[in-house]
């Protein structure tokens, strides 16, 4: 079943090998935020990505070092990616969770 995934309850095959048609809904788009994404927001997105792909929700003593190294590497790659992309013409549709939490606490 390599190369298959389920979307909306239906099994599907990507059009090209290695192509993915959907992304975890919990990872928020960071490009185009005003003000720009903070290091904390980038790390939070990286941590969510590593949780999703590893299946590790809470790192243990056995998984912690590999998990934290992966978060560090994904954070660095994401920071580099965002710095290298041109500005977005349209802002993202949703705020990152850290901004939503901060806004709710400020009220």
Structural description of this entry:
- By secondary structure, the chain is mostly helical.
- Strand 1 and strand 2 form a beta hairpin.
- It starts with a strand and ends with a helix.
- Helices cover 44% and strands 6% of the residues.
- The protein has one domain (27-106).
- It has helices at residues 39-54, 64-84, 97-106; strands at residues 5-7, 10-12.
- The protein is globular.
Element order: H for helix, E for strand? EEHHH
- Rounded mean pLDDT score: 83
Structural class: mainly alpha
Summarize the amount of helix as a percent range.
Answer: 40-55%
**Estimated share of beta-strand residues:** 5-15%
Which oligomeric state applies? Answer: single chain
Spatial separation of the terminal alpha carbons = 49 Å
The count of helical stretches stands at 3
General form? globular
Tally of structural domains: 1
Please summarize what this structure is.
44% of the residues lie in helices and 6% in strands.
Core attributes:
single chain, mainly alpha, 44% helix
Write the layout of secondary structure elements.
Elements: E1 5-7, E2 10-12, H1 39-54, H2 64-84, H3 97-106
Antiparallel strand pairs: 1-2
Helix pairs in contact: 1-2
């Amino acid at each position: 079943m390599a190369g298959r995934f389920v979307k909306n309850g239906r099994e599907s095959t990507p059009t090209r090998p290695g192509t993915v048609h959907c992304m975890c809904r919990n990872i928020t788009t960071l490009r185009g935020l005003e003000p720009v994404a903070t290091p904390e927001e980038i790390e939070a997105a990286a941590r969510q990505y590593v949780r999703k792909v590893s299946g590790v929700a809470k790192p243990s003593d056995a998984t912690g070092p590999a998990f934290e190294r992966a978060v560090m590497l994904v954070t660095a790659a994401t920071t580099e990616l965002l710095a290298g992309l041109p500005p977005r013409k349209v802002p993202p549709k949703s705020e990152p969770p850290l901004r939503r939490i901060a806004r709710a606490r400020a009220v």
